[in-house]
Design a protein that fits this description.
34% of the residues lie in helices and 16% in strands. With 289 residues, it is of the alpha+beta class. The strands form three sheets. The chain has a six-stranded antiparallel β-sheet with strand order 2-1-10-9-8-7, with helices on both faces. The protein has a two-stranded antiparallel sheet with strand order 3-4.
């Protein structure tokens, strides 16, 4: 087992409100530590990465493609669309490049479609819940189910994740961008699925090609100029240092996948100053892998 003490001491020394951590390597548990009892908790934007897998599954099943136009998924909802909206595709939503100028939380599809796009789709990364929400709604239309329900037998139950809470929008779609509640152990199993390129106990839950594609950078994030945020964004996944990628969420929710080390680090927290939690992984966990 890994010596988790240097990490926990670094967290405590900085008074960071981490709730729990699980480290997996070579498919086995290398370390686990709890500051508070384990229970499902909001994972905020980690939800986006689960939506990405729902998109990948729908594509695998021939029900969606990255080139699908957003307006075609919602016929008649915008009678006289602006040119930029007419160009918007599912891929633009996944890469946070729809052209919206700032972060948004639209209450429903109509509000999201009414937002003004100030740049051509695909030209600039702007982190935005509205993009992933629209992707979730596109999945719903294509598969005939909310994303949460679509994933129950395809993802959650195979990973032994009890049927989770995942909030719904006012117009009936899984929020997609946020609203999911999971335990640290569930996050770790999700990370292991990613590390295994979509394979779980011999069954391919989502194609390996989707995992490979979704987790590599498709748009630059250099304008963010922050460590582990400036290395590019995939399809609802961040690229980070040390050859890794991650799902992350507000207040310190992390699923860090390190293919070179064949390892996963899952962390649950309630900490506004979240990135020192990740930096402590590089300082105190990575050297032991």
């Amino acid at each position: 087992m890994m010596n988790i003490k240097p990490y926990t001491e670094a967290i405590d020394r900085q008074s960071l409100k981490v709730e729990g951590i699980v480290v997996l390597q070579h498919g086995e548990e290398a370390a686990r530590y709890r500051w508070v009892p384990e229970a499902p908790r909001p994972v905020y934007s980690v939800s986006k990465s689960f939506t990405s897998l729902a998109v990948g599954m729908a594509i695998d099943e021939g029900k969606l493609s990255l080139r699908d136009r957003v307006l075609d998924a919602f016929p008649g909802r915008v009678p006289d669309p602006a040119p930029r909206l007419s160009l918007l595709t599912l891929e633009h939503l996944l890469t946070m490049s729809r052209g919206h100028p700032e972060f948004s939380r639209p209450a429903g599809v109509d509000e999201a479609l009414a937002q003004t796009l100030t740049r051509d789709p695909g030209t600039r990364f702007v982190y935005d819940n509205g993009s992933t929400f629209l992707a979730s709604a596109m999945v719903s239309g294509a598969v005939g189910q909310r994303v949460r329900d679509f994933l129950l037998d395809r993802l959650f139950r195979p990973l032994d994740i009890p049927d989770p809470v995942w909030e719904t929008s006012a117009d009936g779609h899984t929020l997609g961008a946020t609203g999911l509640e999971l335990s640290t152990g569930s996050l770790a199993r999700f990370g292991q699925l990613l590390l295994q390129r979509g394979n779980w106990q011999g069954k391919q839950l989502v194609s390996a090609s989707w995992i490979d594609t979704a987790t590599r950078p498709h748009i630059t994030t250099k304008l963010l100029k922050a460590a582990d945020c400036d290395l590019g964004y995939g399809y609802c996944f961040w690229n980070c240092r040390h050859g890794g990628y991650r799902a992350d969420g507000k207040n310190g929710q992390f699923v860090v996948v390190l293919p070179r080390e064949d390892a996963v680090v899952a962390i649950s927290s309630d900490e506004e100053t979240m990135f020192p939690i990740l930096y402590a992984v590089w300082d105190h966990i990575l050297p032991q892998l």
